[in-house]
Amino acid sequence: MTQSFTCSACGAPNYAEADSIRMACAYCGANLTIPEHLRTKSIPNVRETISRARPANSPEIDTPDLFRKAQPIAVKAWNLYAYWTWVRWLLPTCLTLIVVGIIICAALGALPFVFNLFR
pLDDT tens, 59-93? Predict the structure, then answer.
């Protein structure tokens, strides 16, 4: 049972707060020092918890979920591979056409000069 002590300012009864040395009067708000014989420690709030063990992973149960999570990654990887194969074919083809075009332009530009040599 908790005992009360009186406020030095208004004389009202106050009950000591746990784990504190000073407190405010509940009626007038004056600062009070709790007498040493009324100072108490707080009682810890202990709650018993039941630990629930997580069930072991089962490949049969987890597989569809894993496939659902991996599907967007697999689709992006496949698209990246398709783009890479297309670029791998397109880049050398374009460079070859450019080089052949330069050679043809140079040959056609040199034709009048060549024909003037044989006259």
Answer: 777 788 888 888 888 899 999 999 999 889 898 99
Q: Rounded to two decimals, what is the model's pTM?
A: 0.34
Separation CA 42–CA 39 (nearest Å): 10
Strand 4-6 to 13-15 pairing = antiparallel
- Helices assigned H by DSSP within the chain: 59-117
**What is the SS3 assignment for 38?**
helix
Per-domain residue ranges of the chain:
4-38, 70-119
- Spatial contact of 25 and 17, defined as CB atoms under 8 Å apart: no
**Spatial separation of the C-alpha atoms in residues 119 and 106, rounded to whole Å:** 21
